[in-house]
């Protein structure tokens, strides 16, 4: 019954906003001032910090040998793409990182700027810019140690362009962290019907199931655009406790850590694309 | 002043942005103009520099995830110098549990305590003046059950450890907080999201998290409008430093329940003990007023006299005891005799009123209560400061994890976890102590029998004793 055709309609010509979808922007416009209400529309995103920040922090700590007491991410330059009101930028800034947060929606940037302004430490460590990823590529080639794109790729119009731009602004061997939603029957039932229409965990209309990204597709796009995928982990939201946890299955939400190949062009151990990838561009029913 | 000029100009410049800019009283203005005039911002401010407040600030100051954070401790009184401990003992002592000792050693304070002075005790004997019912607490492995430490010794150790992290923890002496301004939970555009603190001398501070450790009359609790369930006992505690008739190992803590209230003898050394005698206000005043000899006589009589026995109770108690020893031969303990007192240190007698209290909430957005500000108990269980140290261990654990995750320290999310954990622990103890106090404040035969048999059973059953 859920036999939907995934139409890979690409925009006929490339504009500087090619990964930004204007319909998406309108949706977020209405909620621009609600970001920082921890019990409000974005409460699930606030509580997601409890697993995504330790995930980013521990992955980066395990890859580096320095440790600054009290500032574990000191010296790390992070780009937070689709930063919204700054929910993820702020914890990363508190851990010592220099964060650049970009979001195409000016109202989001305004909210984010305003919220960080009261904390002098954060105000210095975080810079926000109203911009799409493409717009900063030229001036930021190989600038960042880390890119985080959390709850973003399910909203972009052209995922491959997005990933290519990430690769361009990332230093060699830099890390890319993505969290997003899988496109499965389960994610339709729980992620759209229950989360949006029944329980109101997510504001209605936030997500379009057709734009959810299966992990295999994401992995393939990453591997063929200069990345080596290191980790894929499933995430689960418990609406009763309002908290997130890790789980083995990636059928709902999941997180990915990928590393940009080094200057020699060496890829990681997960090289060869698997045969299942050829299914991705044909019409599919909701895959589990 | 230039700050006021900036404020006026700021408002004029930003006014066209519309009605969102209404300035609230006592809140800093938008950051663009507030850089010059905003009060200093701290990550954590602890209000109250007693044992619990000082230990809290010291624990955070020594936490590795708090390097680079700014902590302030506000104490209304002056800084006390503890360099030289006087030869005589102070009359305010605390019974420190092994768990509290562990907390104090985690940031280096316990070593200082040990190098000053303390008295470990191995055994607690608690018995009823109306019968001979008795319960003895003892650890099987000959470990210390607890330590009697003068409060001044604890404060000396804490002050030393605060000095050691002075780059991270700023202690403000003679700084009483007189007013607090709370932020809105989901802060709107232009008002400061921090807690504003006003000191008596007009200075102001801001903080992301306020920890109220300001005692059972907590101003933080009152200003936060947190309801407190409280009850004044019609009892005062008389404290004094006593000298024993003869030197002994003195490693037992003694407590006898008199109908007027419990009298306790806590060991300080082989020849000295500290008195804590909870009794009616009138009797307490009498005890303070009488001459030293009569005072010593009253104490010895309280521990030794059988005037409160009745034949009925004695017989009933003895019968019950033989029944128990028949069923469980090891279940009756060997009764030791408490030491007798020879004299009292002059000028060491003092009294203070007793009460119980429990805050209905321990936390609010950006505020948390610890120690007596959150819960106040009768000294009969020797728990008071240990509950506070337990609060510190729990709160420090949650704040450390929050700091390591880059969280906003004042966020209710982890503060509520602290509250749940501690309320679960504290409520039962505060309630049980209160029940014990009331149960033992009577001569009525049925209740005496009940508590007599209850105590004998408890003494005979190891699992129950261990839990206590």
UniProtKB/TrEMBL annotation, chain A:
Matching InterPro entries: SAM-dependent_MTases_sf, UbiG_MeTrfase
Region Disordered: start-end pairs: 263-288
Any one Gene Ontology cellular component term annotated for this protein: mitochondrion
A GO MF label: polyprenyldihydroxybenzoate methyltransferase activity
Keywords, in A-Z order: Methyltransferase, S-adenosyl-L-methionine, Transferase, Ubiquinone biosynthesis
Top-level taxon of origin: Eukaryota
One GO BP annotation of this record: methylation
Any one Pfam family match given in the protein's UniProt record, by short name: Methyltransf_23
HAMAP family named among the record's database cross-references: UbiG
The protein, known as: COQ3 protein
The species this protein was found in: Campylorhamphus procurvoides
TrEMBL record, chain B:
GO annotation, biological process: ubiquinone biosynthetic process
Lineage top rank: taxon: Eukaryota
Pfam families, A to Z: FAD_binding_3 (PF01494)
Gene3D superfamilies tied to this protein: FAD/NAD(P)-binding domain (3.50.50.60)
Cofactors, names only: FAD
A cellular component annotation (GO) from this entry: mitochondrial inner membrane
A GO MF term: 4-hydroxy-3-all-trans-polyprenylbenzoate oxygenase activity
Location of the FAD-binding domain: 194-305, 341-429
Keyword Nucleotide-binding: no
Signal peptide start and end residues: none
Keyword line: Cell projection, FAD, Flavoprotein, Golgi apparatus, Membrane, Mitochondrion, Mitochondrion inner membrane, Monooxygenase, Oxidoreductase, Transit peptide, Ubiquinone biosynthesis
Family: Belongs to the UbiH/COQ6 family.
Protein name: COQ6 monooxygenase
Lineage: Eukaryota, Metazoa, Chordata, Craniata, Vertebrata
